[in-house]
Design a protein that fits this description.
- This protein is α/β, with parallel strands linked by helices.
- It has a domain at about 100-155.
- It is built from nine helices and ten strands.
- Strands 6-7-8-3-9-10 form a six-stranded mixed beta sheet, with helices on both faces.
- Strand 7 (about 165-170), helix 6 (about 180-195) and strand 8 (about 200) form a beta-alpha-beta unit.
- Helix 3 (about 105-115) packs across helix 4.
- The longest helix is centred in the C-terminal third of the chain and has 16 residues, at about 180-195.
- The protein is globular.
- It starts with a helix and ends with a helix.
- One of its GO terms (cellular component) is plasma membrane.
- Belongs to the ABC transporter superfamily.
- Its main location: membrane.
- It is found in: Cell inner membrane.
Protein backbone atom coordinates (compact mmCIF):
# COMPACT_ATOMS: atom_id res chain seq x y z
CA UNK A 1 0.00 0.00 0.00
CA UNK A 2 1.47 3.33 -1.08
CA UNK A 3 1.38 6.30 1.26
CA UNK A 4 0.17 9.72 0.19
CA UNK A 5 3.69 11.20 0.03
CA UNK A 6 4.94 8.34 -2.14
CA UNK A 7 2.11 8.87 -4.62
CA UNK A 8 2.69 12.64 -4.71
CA UNK A 9 6.44 12.19 -5.36
CA UNK A 10 5.76 9.57 -8.04
CA UNK A 11 3.56 12.08 -9.86
CA UNK A 12 6.36 14.66 -9.78
CA UNK A 13 4.93 16.93 -7.10
CA UNK A 14 7.34 16.14 -4.26
CA UNK A 15 7.75 19.27 -2.13
CA UNK A 16 11.37 18.58 -1.18
CA UNK A 17 14.16 17.78 -3.61
CA UNK A 18 16.57 16.89 -0.81
CA UNK A 19 16.03 15.93 2.84
CA UNK A 20 18.68 15.22 5.45
CA UNK A 21 17.25 13.62 8.57
CA UNK A 22 19.46 13.28 11.67
CA UNK A 23 22.54 12.87 9.44
CA UNK A 24 25.84 12.15 11.18
CA UNK A 25 29.28 11.40 9.76
CA UNK A 26 32.15 10.21 11.92
CA UNK A 27 35.79 9.44 11.12
CA UNK A 28 37.02 7.45 14.11
CA UNK A 29 36.60 9.78 17.07
CA UNK A 30 36.18 12.85 14.88
CA UNK A 31 32.68 14.05 13.99
CA UNK A 32 32.39 15.65 10.55
CA UNK A 33 28.59 16.05 10.66
CA UNK A 34 26.41 16.11 13.75
CA UNK A 35 22.61 15.74 13.78
CA UNK A 36 22.03 17.51 10.47
CA UNK A 37 18.37 18.32 9.79
CA UNK A 38 17.79 20.09 6.49
CA UNK A 39 15.20 20.17 3.70
CA UNK A 40 15.67 21.75 0.30
CA UNK A 41 12.50 22.47 -1.65
CA UNK A 42 12.17 21.80 -5.34
CA UNK A 43 13.63 24.75 -7.24
CA UNK A 44 15.25 26.25 -4.14
CA UNK A 45 18.75 27.73 -4.24
CA UNK A 46 20.59 26.97 -1.01
CA UNK A 47 23.99 28.47 -0.23
CA UNK A 48 26.16 26.87 2.46
CA UNK A 49 28.97 28.85 4.06
CA UNK A 50 31.23 28.52 7.06
CA UNK A 51 34.91 28.25 8.00
CA UNK A 52 37.24 25.56 6.65
CA UNK A 53 36.60 22.19 8.25
CA UNK A 54 33.00 23.03 9.15
CA UNK A 55 31.57 20.05 7.21
CA UNK A 56 30.28 21.89 4.14
CA UNK A 57 31.93 19.68 1.53
CA UNK A 58 31.23 16.51 3.51
CA UNK A 59 27.54 17.41 3.53
CA UNK A 60 27.14 17.91 -0.20
CA UNK A 61 29.37 14.92 -0.99
CA UNK A 62 27.00 12.85 1.15
CA UNK A 63 24.03 14.20 -0.83
CA UNK A 64 25.85 13.16 -4.01
CA UNK A 65 26.48 9.68 -2.63
CA UNK A 66 30.25 10.18 -2.68
CA UNK A 67 30.48 10.07 1.11
CA UNK A 68 28.80 7.46 3.26
CA UNK A 69 27.08 8.58 6.45
CA UNK A 70 27.36 7.01 9.88
CA UNK A 71 23.77 7.62 10.91
CA UNK A 72 20.57 9.13 9.55
CA UNK A 73 18.79 9.28 6.20
CA UNK A 74 19.31 11.32 3.05
CA UNK A 75 16.43 11.47 0.60
CA UNK A 76 16.47 12.75 -2.96
CA UNK A 77 13.01 13.34 -4.44
CA UNK A 78 11.58 11.32 -1.59
CA UNK A 79 13.80 8.28 -2.14
CA UNK A 80 16.49 7.34 0.40
CA UNK A 81 19.99 7.08 -1.05
CA UNK A 82 22.72 4.81 0.24
CA UNK A 83 26.23 4.28 -1.10
CA UNK A 84 24.88 4.37 -4.66
CA UNK A 85 24.67 7.96 -5.92
CA UNK A 86 21.27 9.12 -7.14
CA UNK A 87 21.11 9.70 -10.88
CA UNK A 88 18.99 12.77 -10.05
CA UNK A 89 21.97 14.58 -8.50
CA UNK A 90 25.16 15.85 -10.09
CA UNK A 91 28.05 17.90 -8.80
CA UNK A 92 30.45 20.57 -10.08
CA UNK A 93 33.77 20.31 -8.25
CA UNK A 94 36.29 23.00 -7.39
CA UNK A 95 39.05 21.31 -9.43
CA UNK A 96 37.03 20.28 -12.50
CA UNK A 97 37.94 16.52 -12.57
CA UNK A 98 37.92 16.25 -16.37
CA UNK A 99 39.45 13.16 -17.99
CA UNK A 100 42.72 14.44 -19.52
CA UNK A 101 42.89 11.74 -22.23
CA UNK A 102 39.42 12.54 -23.60
CA UNK A 103 38.33 15.45 -25.76
CA UNK A 104 35.89 17.95 -24.29
CA UNK A 105 33.04 16.38 -26.24
CA UNK A 106 33.98 12.86 -25.11
CA UNK A 107 34.17 14.07 -21.51
CA UNK A 108 30.56 15.24 -21.84
CA UNK A 109 29.07 12.16 -23.50
CA UNK A 110 30.85 9.46 -21.47
CA UNK A 111 28.50 9.34 -18.47
CA UNK A 112 25.20 9.94 -20.36
CA UNK A 113 25.89 7.04 -22.73
CA UNK A 114 27.03 4.69 -19.97
CA UNK A 115 24.71 5.54 -17.07
CA UNK A 116 21.70 7.17 -18.73
CA UNK A 117 21.84 4.76 -21.68
CA UNK A 118 21.54 7.58 -24.21
CA UNK A 119 22.55 6.87 -27.79
CA UNK A 120 25.78 8.52 -28.89
CA UNK A 121 23.79 10.71 -31.29
CA UNK A 122 21.46 11.95 -28.52
CA UNK A 123 24.34 12.47 -26.08
CA UNK A 124 26.27 14.49 -28.68
CA UNK A 125 23.23 16.65 -29.36
CA UNK A 126 22.81 17.37 -25.64
CA UNK A 127 26.54 18.01 -25.20
CA UNK A 128 26.62 20.61 -27.95
CA UNK A 129 23.52 22.27 -26.53
CA UNK A 130 25.08 22.66 -23.08
CA UNK A 131 28.50 23.65 -24.48
CA UNK A 132 26.67 26.42 -26.30
CA UNK A 133 24.99 27.42 -23.03
CA UNK A 134 28.38 27.91 -21.37
CA UNK A 135 30.01 29.47 -24.44
CA UNK A 136 32.35 26.59 -25.25
CA UNK A 137 31.16 25.10 -28.57
CA UNK A 138 34.35 26.18 -30.35
CA UNK A 139 36.41 24.10 -27.90
CA UNK A 140 34.49 20.83 -28.32
CA UNK A 141 37.38 18.97 -30.00
CA UNK A 142 40.08 20.29 -27.67
CA UNK A 143 41.56 18.41 -24.71
CA UNK A 144 41.51 19.67 -21.10
CA UNK A 145 45.24 20.51 -21.13
CA UNK A 146 44.53 23.04 -23.89
CA UNK A 147 41.99 24.96 -21.80
CA UNK A 148 42.31 27.66 -19.15
CA UNK A 149 40.97 27.06 -15.64
CA UNK A 150 37.85 29.08 -16.40
CA UNK A 151 37.20 27.13 -19.59
CA UNK A 152 37.63 23.85 -17.73
CA UNK A 153 35.05 24.95 -15.15
CA UNK A 154 32.61 25.89 -17.92
CA UNK A 155 33.07 22.41 -19.39
CA UNK A 156 32.57 20.84 -15.95
CA UNK A 157 29.27 22.72 -15.60
CA UNK A 158 28.16 21.59 -19.07
CA UNK A 159 29.12 18.01 -18.20
CA UNK A 160 26.90 18.08 -15.11
CA UNK A 161 23.99 19.52 -17.10
CA UNK A 162 24.37 16.68 -19.61
CA UNK A 163 23.36 14.30 -16.82
CA UNK A 164 19.94 16.02 -16.68
CA UNK A 165 19.98 16.29 -12.87
CA UNK A 166 17.08 17.41 -10.72
CA UNK A 167 19.58 18.73 -8.14
CA UNK A 168 22.89 20.40 -8.97
CA UNK A 169 25.63 20.73 -6.33
CA UNK A 170 28.53 23.21 -6.46
CA UNK A 171 31.58 22.88 -4.20
CA UNK A 172 33.26 26.30 -4.28
CA UNK A 173 33.18 26.35 -8.11
CA UNK A 174 35.16 29.59 -8.47
CA UNK A 175 37.78 29.17 -5.74
CA UNK A 176 40.56 28.33 -8.24
CA UNK A 177 39.72 31.12 -10.72
CA UNK A 178 41.04 34.63 -11.30
CA UNK A 179 38.60 37.54 -10.66
CA UNK A 180 37.44 38.07 -14.29
CA UNK A 181 37.04 34.36 -15.00
CA UNK A 182 35.26 33.97 -11.67
CA UNK A 183 32.79 36.68 -12.70
CA UNK A 184 32.05 34.92 -16.01
CA UNK A 185 31.51 31.51 -14.39
CA UNK A 186 29.26 33.00 -11.69
CA UNK A 187 27.13 34.58 -14.42
CA UNK A 188 26.67 31.14 -16.00
CA UNK A 189 25.66 29.62 -12.65
CA UNK A 190 23.25 32.52 -12.07
CA UNK A 191 21.60 31.83 -15.43
CA UNK A 192 21.22 28.15 -14.49
CA UNK A 193 19.65 29.20 -11.19
CA UNK A 194 17.06 31.24 -13.08
CA UNK A 195 15.99 28.11 -14.97
CA UNK A 196 14.41 26.67 -11.81
CA UNK A 197 17.06 24.05 -11.08
CA UNK A 198 17.36 23.00 -7.44
CA UNK A 199 20.85 24.02 -6.37
CA UNK A 200 23.04 23.61 -3.29
CA UNK A 201 26.16 25.74 -3.51
CA UNK A 202 29.16 26.16 -1.25
CA UNK A 203 30.62 29.61 -1.82
CA UNK A 204 32.36 32.42 0.03
CA UNK A 205 31.34 34.99 -2.57
CA UNK A 206 28.90 37.23 -0.69
CA UNK A 207 27.58 39.12 -3.72
CA UNK A 208 26.94 35.87 -5.59
CA UNK A 209 25.22 34.31 -2.57
CA UNK A 210 23.01 37.37 -2.16
CA UNK A 211 22.10 37.21 -5.84
CA UNK A 212 21.04 33.56 -6.10
CA UNK A 213 20.30 32.25 -2.60
CA UNK A 214 16.79 31.65 -1.30
CA UNK A 215 18.34 30.62 2.03
CA UNK A 216 21.81 30.61 3.54
CA UNK A 217 23.02 27.82 5.82
CA UNK A 218 25.92 28.58 8.15
CA UNK A 219 27.91 25.60 9.42
CA UNK A 220 30.61 25.28 12.06
CA UNK A 221 32.27 22.17 13.51
CA UNK A 222 29.96 19.85 11.60
CA UNK A 223 26.75 21.49 12.81
CA UNK A 224 24.18 23.78 11.24
CA UNK A 225 24.35 26.91 13.37
CA UNK A 226 22.01 29.23 11.50
CA UNK A 227 19.61 29.17 8.54
CA UNK A 228 18.25 32.46 7.22
CA UNK A 229 17.30 34.42 4.09
CA UNK A 230 20.42 36.02 2.54
CA UNK A 231 19.43 39.60 3.36
CA UNK A 232 19.08 38.68 7.02
CA UNK A 233 22.14 36.47 7.24
CA UNK A 234 24.59 38.88 5.62
CA UNK A 235 23.23 42.00 7.27
CA UNK A 236 22.00 40.83 10.66
CA UNK A 237 23.02 37.28 11.55
CA UNK A 238 21.43 35.98 14.73
CA UNK A 239 24.15 33.69 16.01
CA UNK A 240 27.38 35.18 17.45
CA UNK A 241 29.49 32.59 15.63
CA UNK A 242 27.95 33.58 12.30
CA UNK A 243 28.59 37.25 13.09
CA UNK A 244 32.21 36.47 13.98
CA UNK A 245 32.70 34.54 10.73
CA UNK A 246 31.27 37.37 8.63
CA UNK A 247 33.35 39.98 10.45
CA UNK A 248 36.53 37.99 9.79
CA UNK A 249 35.58 37.25 6.21
CA UNK A 250 34.67 40.83 5.33
CA UNK A 251 37.90 42.16 6.90
CA UNK A 252 39.87 40.16 4.34
CA UNK A 253 37.90 41.41 1.32
Amino acid sequence: MYGKNTIICALGFCMNSVELIDVNKQYGESKALTDIQLSVKKGEKLVICGPSGSGKSTLIRAVNGLESISKGVIKVLGQPISTTPSDKVDMVFQHFHLFPHLSILDNLILAPTRTLNLSRREALKNAMHFLNQVGMTDQADQFPVQLSSGQKQRVAIARSLCMQPEVLLFDEPTAALDPQTKHDVLNIITDIAKSGMTMICITHDVSFAQKIADRVVFMEQGKIIEVAPPEQFFNQPQHPRAQHFLDQFMSHQ
